[in-house]
């Protein structure tokens, strides 16, 4: 019997509410209901009495409850004995100052016994390959932009629709504006990571955003590592750079939010399927908490996001 079905049963039995149980397990309510029905078919018994007003355990549900608790406790004990839970969890935050850093900080508060180690290497595509190969545990970024074959080895949790921005070289005419309308970038050539093998998901997002707006994506350029080198390249090339509103300050550049419409960068928490580690649980809890309190998954009325991303961001893994 799939232990996931028993976990679904236990969540509903303890909450007596399918919506709350689904939120507790980080799954869609429809998926939870499907698992409960499958368990009922396998056991040949109705486990819950459901009405429009309440959910209660049947006599068979009451009989199953102590057995299910013992089985799940035994599974958790077995997993704890063989999992890598005691090792540090390696988390790629992409860049300092982004929402991923806030999630990591909160996760460390939720699970102080875990060692959550940060690294900063831009690009979810590069990070995802490392995750699938076991060289990295967790990263953040545009999950929909990954190759479907790579996504099949990963799990994700939507975190935020992050408003996008543009980094402008000092003295650029658009620095006079507090916010830059997308139409004002017509005729500009904007750098969006083209040629960087770690960030094709970001370059693809830029192409989708700029299409039909008269904005060109800059040709590949040498990868600038570190603020000083970034400032030198910015001063030399003079190309605006596509970014997000939380992007850290860079020398020789001024950050302005993009508007009319507000382009959104979909951010997910991404980890390897089957990875069991209390640090992952803490990160997921932290991400869900901050997303809810900060309204990160609310799309503004004038927000723009590719349809494929909007669909994937509704998934609850």
From TrEMBL:
Keywords, alphabetical: DNA-binding, Transcription, Transcription regulation
Signal peptide coordinates: none
Coiled coil listed as a keyword: no
Domain of life: Bacteria
Annotated ranges, domain HTH lysR-type: 1-58
Protein family according to the UniProt entry: Belongs to the LysR transcriptional regulatory family.
Protein name: LysR family transcriptional regulator
Protein source organism: Streptomyces alfalfae
